[in-house]
Amino acid sequence: MSEVVxxxxxxxYALYASYVQCVILADxxxxxxxxxxxxxxxxxxxxxxxxKFYPELYKQEDNxxxxxxxxxxxxxxxxxxxxxxLRRAAYFIQESEETLRSLISDEVxxxxxxxxxxxxxxxxxxxxxxxxxxxxxxxxxEQPLISEAEHK
Length: 152
Prior knowledge:
By secondary structure, the protein is mostly helical. It has helices spanning 11-27, 32-53, 74-89, 93-110, 120-123, 138-142, 148-151. The protein has 7 helices and no strands. Helix 1 packs antiparallel against helix 2 (32-53), helix 1 (11-27) runs parallel beside helix 3 (74-89) and helix 3 (74-89) packs antiparallel against helix 4 (93-110). The chain starts with 10 loop residues before the first helix and ends with a helix.
């Protein structure tokens, strides 16, 4: 008796609510519950939403993201970022770091038409810090931190 449920646009709010619940549980040192919620509900919900409202992502003939579970979109990037946060909260630091590195490279590739990252360094030069002298001025060390007038 399995019913076929049609995907509705307001499901995205349920998806966001599940993200918030996952973060709250992870912040309270729960590990199993947010992982199960994320895998059993959030993954399936996001996949259903993308298939319903963004079918062009799945119909591309030259789909270069065929080996991924979700195609690259703003929503899947947010989803993967939350997954990395949950992994980090569960002390899977290496897995979290790998997820974030792949996420950043995918975002750079996805948004390459919007941002020209080649010119970033020339447009935003690195500011050199000026080294402070390590020698302490003798006059500053002789003066008391609080004057006697302020102390009374």
